[in-house]
Specification:
This protein is an alpha+beta fold. The chain is built from four helices and eight strands.
Length: 182
Amino acid sequence: LAVKNYSTAKEIPLIIAASGADRVGITAEVAKPIKDLAGNIEASKMTRLGGDYSMLIYAKVPESNKEQLVKTLNEIEGLIVNVHKTSPEQTDTSFRSWKDLKLVGQDGPGIVEAVSSYFKEKGINVDEMSTVTEPAPFASGSNLFKLNARIALPKSIDSKQLSHDISTLAETLDVDMWLPNE
C-alpha cells in the first residue's frame, strides 16, 4: 500500500452529508473523488437506515479543489449531497467531563425528544447519539428501543443532581437509563 504525499496547499475542513438508496459501492463512489482531489477523510459515520445508506464525513481538501469536489459528488447518481465548510475541531473548556448514557425500554413516541430536551435544558451537549429498535425478546409484537449517547457535561452540572434527574426521567418514560461506570 503506497501512501501519497499530498499537496501542501491551504486545506479547508468540510462536512459532507450524503445519502441515497443503499447499493454496493456507494462508499467508494464518495471516497474516490475526495482522494482524487487530494483530500483526506479524517472522521466519518456511515450507516444503513431503512433502505438508504447515509454518510456523514469530516474531510479536509485543498481550498482550490472544493468546487470540483462538490460538482463531482453531486454527479453521483441517486445520491443527495450537502457539502459545507466547517471550523476545525476545538476543545470547549466550558465542559468539565464526558459521560456515556444508555437507555433501554419499550419503544414509543417521544423518547428521543424527552431525553434531548432534558439535555438542552441543562446545557448538556450531545457529542454522539445512536438509537435502534429491535423486536423485544420478552413480548411478541412490541419493539425494544435502545439509545446510546456520549454527552459533554458543563462545569455547572452536579453529578448527584444529574443521577437523580436521569432516574426521574427514566421513571417518567418507563425505561431503564443509566450512566455506565457511575
